[in-house]
Structure to design on (280 residues):
C-alpha cells in the first residue's frame, strides 16, 4: 500500500516551488500564485507550442504535452496558454490522424520523438491525443462548443483514436514504446473503443509485476486522469506496484535520474488522490 503522507513529505522536502505548488493543488485545490503560472508558461511560442530547448524557435509536440501535464497538476490547463497549446496541437495533426515532430528537430529530438521514426510517431499521436482529450472543454479553443471528449477538438481525438486502433497487433501489443500503450488505452477508452483499449490493458497487466516505479506512476496517473477508476484492474495493479516500489524516504525512483524523482513522486500522488476540476 502507498504511504501517501510519506510521499507528500518527500515532495515538500525535495521539491522546488513549482513542485510544491503542484502538490498543493493536488492535495487541497489551492490555486497557485499567478506569477508562478506565468513562469511555468514561459517560452511558449507565438504559435502556441513549447520548444524542447529553452529559447528555441521550433515548438515540440512532446515538450508541449509535458508542459500541459504541469499545467494540469496546477489546475491551470484551462488558461489562455493551455487553449493556445490545444490550438497548436490540433493544427499539427496530420491527415492520417497522427502527429510527428518538425523535421527541424531531427538532430535534437530524443529517441522517442525523432521525426521519421514510426515508433516515435505512434507515441506522439497517443500523447497529443491524450492531452487534448484530458483538456476537453476546459482548454477548448474559441471554436464551437462540443460536449464530446476533446471539446472543440472531438474530431481530432477521434481521428487519432482510429490511427491508434489500427496499429494494435492481434495480441494487443503495439509497435512503439511502453508509454504508448497506456496513453493509447486511455484515449481509446474515452472514445468508447473498449475492446481495443482492453486488449492493450491486457498486455500492460502482464507487464506490471516487473514494471519500473516511474512507469507504474505514469500509467496510474494517466488512467486516473480519465476516470478509468474505480475498479480498473490495471490501475489497481499499478497502485499495488507503487506500494511495492516506494522508498523508505517516501519517494520513487525515476528512470531519468535522481533529479526527476520528485516528478515521479508527484505522478504517484496524482494517481492516489481524487481528481480535481481544473480552473479556467
Amino acid at each position: 500500500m502507498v504511504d501517501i503522507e510519506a510521499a507528500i513529505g518527500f515532495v515538500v522536502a525535495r521539491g522546488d516551488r513549482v513542485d510544491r505548488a503542484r502538490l498543493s493543488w493536488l492535495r487541497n485545490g489551492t490555486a497557485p500564485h499567478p506569477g508562478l503560472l506565468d513562469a511555468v508558461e514561459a517560452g511558449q511560442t507565438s504559435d502556441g507550442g513549447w520548444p524542447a530547448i529553452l529559447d528555441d524557435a521550433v515548438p515540440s509536440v512532446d515538450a508541449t504535452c509535458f508542459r500541459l501535464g504541469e499545467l494540469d497538476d496546477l489546475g491551470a490547463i484551462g488558461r489562455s496558454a493551455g487553449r493556445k497549446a490545444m490550438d497548436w496541437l490540433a493544427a499539427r495533426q496530420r491527415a492520417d490522424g497522427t502527429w510527428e515532430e518538425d523535421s527541424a528537430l531531427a538532430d535534437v529530438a530524443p529517441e522517442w520523438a525523432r521525426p521519421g521514426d514510426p515508433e516515435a510517431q505512434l507515441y506522439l499521436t497517443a500523447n497529443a491525443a491524450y492531452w487534448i482529450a484530458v483538456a476537453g472543454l476546459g482548454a477548448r479553443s474559441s471554436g464551437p462548443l462540443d460536449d464530446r471528449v476533446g471539446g472543440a477538438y472531438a474530431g481530432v481525438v477521434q481521428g487519432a483514436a482510429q490511427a491508434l486502433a489500427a496499429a494494435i497487433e492481434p495480441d494487443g501489443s503495439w509497435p512503439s514504446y511502453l508509454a504508448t500503450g497506456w496513453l493509447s488505452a486511455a484515449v481509446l477508452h474515452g472514445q468508447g473503443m473498449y475492446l481495443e483499449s482492453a486488449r492493450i490493458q491486457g498486455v500492460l497487466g502482464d507487464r506490471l509485476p516487473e514494471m519500473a516505479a516511474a512507469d507504474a506512476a505514469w500509467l496510474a496517473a494517466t488512467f486516473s486522469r480519465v476516470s478509468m477508476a474505480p475498479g480498473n484492474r490495471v490501475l489497481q495493479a499499478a497502485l499495488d506496484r507503487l506500494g511495492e516500489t516506494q522508498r523508505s524516504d517516501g519517494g520513487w525512483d525515476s528512470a531519468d535520474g535522481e533529479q526527476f524523482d520528485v516528478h515521479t513522486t508527484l505522478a504517484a500522488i496524482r494517481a492516489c488522490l481524487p481528481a480535481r476540476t481544473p480552473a479556467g
The CA atoms of residues 183 and 222 lie 7 Å apart.
